[in-house]
Amino acid sequence: MKILITRPLQQSRRFAKALDKQFGESLEICISPVLEIKFFRVEINLEPFDGLIFTSESGVKAFTHLNKKTDKKVYCVGAYTSEVARKSGLSVSHTEKDVGDLKTWLVENDSEKTLLYLCGKHISNNLEMAFEESKITIVSQIIYDQIPRKLLPDAIQFLSDVRPVLVPIFSERSYEILSRQFKSSMKSSRMAICLSSAIANKIRDDEFEKVLISPRPDLESLINLVQEFFQNS
Predict the structure, then answer these.
(1) What is the pLDDT of residues 144-186, one digit of tens each?
(2) Which CATH architecture has domain 37-146?
């Protein structure tokens, strides 16, 4: 079986390492990032805010790149985001597996705060709108961009082979960039493994033979889904 990983390079390498540990030579891995993370140099005034929200490791790393120091409470989406934040010296107060659960927790436990959401230029969740009917005020500030990248020649060949290819898709943005690069000459049957149902709902019917959805938006769940696919194929 083959798998094409299109995450930003560092994230792709980490995912590939975990897959290799789990499946060894039974899984052929190709890395071809369709996104490159570019940090912005921006001025951030943290004074008006009670805390910070990060929904990705890229957001944490972009903030760390600014050399800002703070002891304000940090709220994270995703265990790895939280881990990166802690290793960066941030004071992680609470972590949830997805944005919906974080919103619920914040509304129930910190009902009148003003929080700064440090995010990328392209986001799947508009937190300012999500919290509009609550007493929590969210202010978004863009601190990085996700630059589109073309598939590498190895990836194009990978998709042109007749053997099936698993394609994990971690965001709507990466799907849109990848989708524009599919060609009729790419003969392999493709199976999408989506991090969420929101991503799966964006996928066109003719692009993938099968679309699988991870039960949880994390790396461990994705790897378990790959394992299940192996067992049933």
Answers:
(1) 999 999 999 999 999 998 889 999 999 999 999 999 999 988 9
(2) 3-Layer(aba) Sandwich (3.40)
